[in-house]
Write a structure and sequence with these properties.
This protein is mostly beta strands. It folds into four domains: about 90 residues, no CATH class; about 100 residues, Immunoglobulin-like, CATH 2.60.40; about 100 residues, Immunoglobulin-like (Sandwich), CATH 2.60.40; about 90 residues. Strands 32-33-29-28-35 form a five-stranded mixed β-sheet, with no helix packed on it. The chain has a four-stranded antiparallel β-sheet with strand order 4-7-11-10. The longest helix is centred in the first third of the chain and has 9 residues. It starts with about 25 loop residues before the first strand and ends with a strand.
């Protein structure tokens, strides 16, 4: 039952609130509409006027004279001019809220692999999903990378430094868009556009001597192998890598090792170590000096000291005079106990730390004897550093 005087958009009491808005396509049917019919009405595709007896049109309304259109037995009704008129020809008469969220659509980093202790930064770009409205710092937008506030410069970024070797993942963890107050973040887009940065350094993992003890004037060299710590990527000369041994540029030996030929002309021990390196593929120059110290190598250049004496300075012809030699390595003064020692071209015998050889002559005269050759000993030393006689 409908009251004799009914209102739409206002109540019967003066205390009631008036509706401020615009009613469009308001109809009375003397029948029930299906959900499909209602959907068609919403889409503007329903034209069946059967049993439609009152219709409030959507256009061409004169608020002082327009009436309901009578489609049947209904009675025309006056449309009262509202306090505030919303003209559908110039205003959007629908309430159309937008539900939106922020998405990450771009990610990159200043360098995918860098030196430990160096500063790098991942950077990201974000926008609202609904209309691609960009987040920037022009409107107090804010972005957090790994829960730290990011800075803006054509993209959102944050500087990071790592002091150990490893891979670090960076992702937008939250954001705040100021124009519309959107804070919802599409976490799937953040995961899709995350960024990994590797901090790395070079290490020496092998060091050895070509010959731990060499004779004076001979060429010797230390042998070294290097790699990147993060993934054992090897340094070689195929990619313009470089290595310095005792600040001298090293050479690469056919896929085996880095070395530097050196010669010393005085007896002593020299230490050789990798002092720096440069890896070309990723541009790594950070160097683990502890590994260099662990795999340094000592090279010794040595000579043999000879001390000769005889058991009798003058003897009868045809008698045997014993010639003795005491041979020592000059570097550490240890005895030469093996190999071949020639006295005037004849081999001497070793026993009780002494080399000896008996000599006799059948004619009167003065003969000179000396060590003419040393070879085949433990350290391969062939050079005589000094001779002394008693």
């Amino acid at each position: 039952r409908i009251r004799p005087l009914s209102y739409f958009g206002k109540g019967h009491s003066s205390d009631d609130w008036d509706y401020e808005g615009y009613l469009t396509d308001f109809r009375f049917y003397d029948r029930a509409l299906s959900s499909y019919n209602i959907m068609e009405l919403y889409q503007g595709a329903y034209s069946d006027t059967t049993d439609l007896f009152l219709w409030y049109p959507t256009t061409g309304i004169d608020y002082s004279t327009s009436t309901w259109t009578n489609y049947g037995s209904g009675t025309d009704a006056t449309i009262e001019d509202p306090d505030t008129i919303i003209d559908p020809t110039v205003s959007d008469v629908y309430v159309r809220p937008i539900w939106d969220e922020i998405e990450v659509y771009f990610a990159q980093s200043s360098d995918l692999r860098t030196n430990v202790d160096e500063q790098e930064y991942p950077y990201f770009r974000l926008r609202l999903k609904y209309d691609n409205h960009l987040l920037d710092d022009g409107s107090n937008d804010a972005v957090w990378i790994n829960s730290s506030v990011a800075s803006w410069s054509t993209a959102w970024y944050k500087y990071y430094t790592q002091v150990s070797v490893g891979s670090w993942n960076f992702v937008v963890t939250s954001a705040s868009e100021d124009t519309y107050g959107i804070t919802a973040l599409d976490s799937a887009s953040a995961v899709s556009f995350d960024e990994d940065i590797i901090w790395d350094e070079i290490e020496v993992y092998y060091g050895y001597q070509h010959d731990p003890r060499e004779y004076l004037g001979a060429t010797n060299w230390g042998i070294f192998r290097l790699r990147l710590k993060y993934d054992n990527h090897l340094l070689n000369d195929n990619a313009n890598d470089e290595v310095w041994i005792n600040t001298e540029v090293a050479s690469w030996s056919g896929g085996l090792f880095w070395y530097d030929n050196v010669v010393q002309t005085t007896v002593g021990s020299w230490n050789y170590a990798v002092t720096s390196a440069s890896e070309d593929t990723y541009g790594i120059t950070a160097f683990d000096s502890d590994s260099a110290a662990e795999y340094d190598t000592d090279l010794i250049w040595d000579a043999i000291g000879v001390h000769l004496w005889i058991d009798d300075a003058r003897d009868n012809i045809d008698d045997t005079i014993m010639v003795y030699a005491w041979l020592t390595y000059m570097y550490d003064m240890t005895n030469v106990t093996d190999g071949t020692v020639l006295l005037n071209g004849t081999g001497m015998s070793y026993g009780s730390n002494i080399w000896s050889l008996g000599r006799s002559q059948s004619t009167v005269g003065l003969w000179s004897y000396g060590i003419t050759s040393i070879s085949g000993n433990t350290h391969g030393i062939t050079v005589i550093g000094y001779n002394s006689f008693t």
